[in-house]
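so my prof wants the structure for this chain in the tokens format not the other one, which i didnt know existed until like an hour ago. anyway here's the sequence
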Amino acid sequence: MSQHFTGAGVALITPFTKSGQVDYKALETIIDNQVKGGMDYLVALGTTAETATLTNDEKLNVVELIKEKSAGLPVMVGMGGNNTRSIIKQIDKYNFNGVDSILVVTPYYNKPSQEGMFRHYTEIAKTSPVPVVLYNVPSRTGVNLEFDTVVRLAEASENIVAIKEASGVLSQITKIGKYTPDDFTVISGDDLLALPIISIGGNGVISVIANALPAKLSQLIKLANSKNYDEALELHFELIDILQLIFKEGNPGGIKALMNHQGTIENVLRSPLYKISDATYNEIKEAYSKLK
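here's what i got, hopefully its the right format
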């Protein structure tokens, strides 16, 4: 099992100022909160970061700040796309100092076959100087990375070390855990399913709620990974309402609303995303007030 990618990881948001610029000061505060909250690793430029709306310079600056403020926590960087050659060129030119792995989402829009995705990932794994984490999120990409393809990939390349699984299909996730090598890591890509996935052999989560509640999320995962399921379930029950609410109108609108209520960031997203409704914002405030 890859020690870098077990436990509690956070899919960091990108905060923006009221004028729509990247708020690097707020991002620094968020990173500090993750370190103090006991998180195990940091994930930059994922879906939650609104990466599709960032310029190349902004992406580089965000990653540099995360590396600088990580306090020794491993850093995973999103580097996916639907053009294999383009990703390989990006890897060839990238500065990997301080980067511990890359998170590579399944190719979106062009909907490749399983064989196409197998070849896509093996080519990336050959090129990458750091370990590759697969990212399966069919609700966003329109294609599912099936369990037997994941097994093929894990066996084909020692550089493919983990999968962030956000299909929501527990039978598929269970079979990935059963048939992949013992040192292959299965990471929940869904806060709501983190506890169930750990209970069937997963190793942690890349979390959205941790942006706002790192200590609670970190504690939940530590309890689950130590098989202290009674206490983990109690904490899961405490968080369930707010977890559902932050995804009610899409991600990262909900988590940004919660962090705005906490006073950490402005409630600003980049178009075509937009802030959540006042009604859901108020529901999130109420659920937050009930946390212990």
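also thought this was worth mentioning. The chain has a mean pLDDT of 96.
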